[in-house]
Design a protein that fits this description.
3% strand, mainly alpha, 77% helix, two-stranded antiparallel ribbon
Length: 149
C-alpha cells in the first residue's frame, strides 16, 4: 500500500489552514486506507517537521527545548491547551527524536496529538504553497517507505 493523492490533498488542506476542506476530505477517505496510509503520512510529516525544528548542526536540541516548545504551544490558545496533554505531546516529539516511545498510548490519542503538533510545527515555518508541496512530498516519500518495509 502507498499513500494516495487524496490522502496528501487532505493533509495539505489541513496544513494550509483550509479547515472545512480538510474535514470534508477526511470524511471522504476510505477508512481502511486512512487507517494506514493517512496515519503514516501524518506521522512521517511530523517526523520531517520535528527534524526541521529540533535538529541544529546535525544534533537534536536538548529535551528542555521540547518541553519549552510544548509549554509555549499550549499557552498560545485555549484550543491548544485543551487539545494537548503536555506529557503525551513531549513524548511524541521525543520519540521522533529517537528518545523514547509511545507504545503505551492508544493509537487515536497519538494520532490526534500528531495531527495537532504537525499543524503547529508547519504553521511556525510559514511555508508558501510551493514549500508546503515540497514538505508534503518529503513526508509522502517517508510514509511510502514505511508502508513498503
Amino acid at each position: 500500500m502507498a499513500v494516495t493523492d487524496e490522502q496528501v490533498g487532505t493533509l495539505e488542506a489541513q496544513l494550509a489552514g483550509r479547515t472545512e476542506e480538510h474535514r470534508r476530505r477526511l470524511n471522504q477517505l476510505d477508512p481502511g486506507d486512512a487507517g494506514q496510509g493517512y496515519s503514516a503520512l501524518v506521522a512521517a510529516g511530523l517526523l520531517v517537521a520535528i527534524e526541521r525544528r529540533f535538529i541544529r548542526n546535525g544534533r537534536y536540541l536538548p529535551r528542555t527545548d521540547v518541553i519549552d516548545y510544548v509549554a509555549t504551544l499550549r499557552a498560545s490558545s485555549q484550543v491548544a491547551a485543551d487539545a494537548l496533554d503536555p506529557h503525551i505531546a513531549e513524548r511524541i516529539i521525543l520519540t521522533g527524536m529517537e528518545q523514547g516511545d509511545v507504545d503505551d498510548i492508544d493509537d487515536n490519542t497519538v494520532l490526534g496529538h500528531q495531527m495537532f503538533l504537525l499543524a503547529a510545527l508547519v504553521a511556525d515555518e510559514n511555508l508558501h504553497a510551493d514549500q508546503l508541496g515540497t514538505f508534503l512530498a518529503e513526508a509522502r516519500e517517508t510514509a511510502d517507505r514505511w508502508l513498503t518495509d
